[in-house]
Design a protein that fits this description.
Blueprint (H helix, E strand, L loop, with lengths): L2 H16 L1 H10 L6 H20 L9 H4 L8
Keywords: Membrane, Transmembrane, Transmembrane helix
Length: 76
């Protein structure tokens, strides 16, 4: 998987979380949650995207940890 695809996939995984932003605005405007929550949400989205990006496979040329240790399939 190339870098561009990894970035798009990582950003796509944050989309459901980003949909909560209007709900958080309404809750903050009504006084049910503190306004600081709105400041924390973009930080949470960035952290979520970064973790998703690092967990995605880097590419077809890199073996997984099990294959690198000699535990790949097809070995007896």
């Amino acid at each position: 998987m190339n870098r561009r695809t990894r970035i798009r996939t990582a950003l796509a995984t944050t989309f459901p979380t980003a949909l909560t932003l209007p709900v958080c605005w309404l809750l903050a405007a009504s006084g049910l949650v503190p306004w600081n929550l709105l400041l924390a949400l973009p930080i949470a989205l960035v952290v979520h995207a970064a973790v998703s990006y690092t967990r995605l496979p880097a590419g077809p040329g890199r073996p997984s940890a099990g294959e690198a240790a000699g535990r790949g399939e097809g070995r007896s």
